[in-house]
Specification:
Layout: H1 2-37, H2 41-52, H3 57-64, H4 68-76, H5 84-93, H6 98-110, H7 123-135, H8 141-152, H9 156-159
Length: 160
């Protein structure tokens, strides 16, 4: 009788452990998705460049002379793009083509999180910036395409 109750207790804990393990993996997957979602264009591109050259973060960091955790933080998006000096060192260390380097600099500019507004900005443009700020995170691809098309349009003044 004593042995059978131990088996029941063991089975109960095995099922409970299995259930806990399942929830752990479920939340881990969601957590990793959240981390991935926070990546910047610069971090995403840097990671793809580094991986395409089969280079580890620690190897790239050693060549550049920075801490490997800094490369990890840049790639994950928890740190903004590095200084121009470090970005230049990254480009050199990865031996980027002209096209790759051009994209790296473009993604660096896109990934800057702080917007500096010129002092002489017209009031109407303040309103546009505020509207965009409110829409961040909820713009679908169609709206983004339309906004970019409007910004690319040349006005009659620009046409001459």
């Amino acid at each position: 009788m004593c042995c059978s109750s131990n088996i029941l207790i063991l089975q109960y804990y095995d099922i409970k452990g299995l259930f806990a393990f399942f929830w752990f993996w479920l939340y881990l997957d969601q957590y990793l998705y959240f981390l991935r979602k926070q990546m910047t264009p610069f971090g995403t591109y840097l990671e793809s460049l580094r991986r395409s050259r089969r280079m580890k973060q620690c190897d790239l960091a050693k060549i550049i002379g920075i801490n490997p955790s800094y490369i990890s933080a840049i790639e994950s998006g928890s740190k903004t793009p590095p200084s121009h000096q470090i970005t230049r060192a990254i480009a050199d260390a990865l031996d980027l083509s002209q096209k790759e380097e051009s994209l790296l600099w473009e993604y660096e500019e896109q990934s800057i999180r702080v917007l500096r507004i010129p002092e002489d900005l017209p009031l109407a443009e303040y309103a546009v910036i505020n509207d965009l700020k409110k829409a961040f995170g909820s713009l679908d691809q169609e709206k983004i395409t339309i906004i970019r098309a409007v910004l690319a349009m040349k006005t009659s003044q620009q046409l001459g």
